[in-house]
């Protein structure tokens, strides 16, 4: 009998694998704020999906062969980031493919480790998979290429009771709880169904499930205690900080947040003048009949450079615009924190003297430091890789040239987490991308900040999904350090976040608007465990994962060696 020209079994196997891959990508993307056809924009995401988002992934790793593993790992990483951060194409069409390719390679190696630990630990490899997932999530935030978008813990941003342990563990305790849940479920499903030829016999499946539950009873109990601790601590913390914020004795400050809805892709003196007119008009409305303590404008809200053009006056139109701004601020009675491109002479990577640009937040206090302009300055420390900062000009001159030709504007990184003093109230000003990293806000609070004042500009993305993804991460900075946060953004999401991570109020996106809100004054001497020790748990997950993996390799080698010798 002739063999069929198509291997039907092969296509059935690959069909199952593709189905698991599809579910892995869809569950991951839907659990975060985002946009996905045909669902449209889902601003809060579906946080419950996060707990099962890795189940099909872990089953896929168990199911596919070593030969196919690499392909599915690459497709997973690529697929997730193509859909998750599709708004990156607004910056440059190539950027989304670069990010997707990078995380495809990243996931390729991740899948290798996931499968290899199942070989090293046949019964408890699933637990090591959860450890490795969190370790890799932490590594995604480290170094020049650090990009925190897509960490599973951030899916829970809209569920305050779940995220309260961030003041102890940072986001890593939450991240592990989610990964552990998925890994445990994948193990129970695998033990119950894989290899069971009697799928139609419910009793058989039930018996296997009971045996699986009994075998992993302590792991299930650990999950239960983990959940009770998270939920119980969350309930107590939410009540504690709600009582503090609502207490009549709690001192409060009133802030005016301006959202001028400008298009950052449009430049020129006419656009700069229009932006200033909009900013001042909105500020006047915010200050009317309201006792405001300080005003915040978004990241690079005012262009051109204030101090540079006031001091050197090489361009009359820009100098006139700067003096118009200074006159306006000096006529008010409240401090202004504004985003501006600050330039000063210095030395570049080739040790040549040039103007060094800093993405900065400037504090102006009327009648004190407006004329001549001498503001307090915070220079953005953590810059966006490639689009704001590329320190490898000498190593990769060809890539540097490509970025320059793409009209990329590079900044110099700041080197100090300095805070602003507003009378007796201290604030830290993480700029845009910086509030997606825990360490920036942590260092500002360590230096005395009683509130985080974020200046952001996500308008370039023209994406509501991008703005919600950004804000979803900012929520955790308040919980980690137990300080309120305010966000003044160009097009959204301008909002106030309280100490327990709840959104107190928020403006409509993509509109010219302002927000006036009160925030509580917290004790600047109180520091949470996270504020004091930072991402210690993330580092610990990396170390435990490495030690477990290496220990498993040594153990397997010893076992194989002894087996070969007949022991």
UniProtKB/TrEMBL annotation:
Q: Which pathway does it operate in?
A: Protein modification; lipoprotein biosynthesis (N-acyl transfer)
Q: Which residues cross the membrane?
A: 17-33, 39-61, 68-88, 94-118, 130-151, 171-195, 216-236, 536-558
Which superkingdom heads the taxonomic lineage of this protein's source? Bacteria
- Coiled-coil portions: none
The CN hydrolase domain is annotated at 253-521
- Keyword Cell membrane, does the record have it? yes
GO cellular component, alphabetical, reads: plasma membrane
What protein name applies here? Apolipoprotein N-acyltransferase
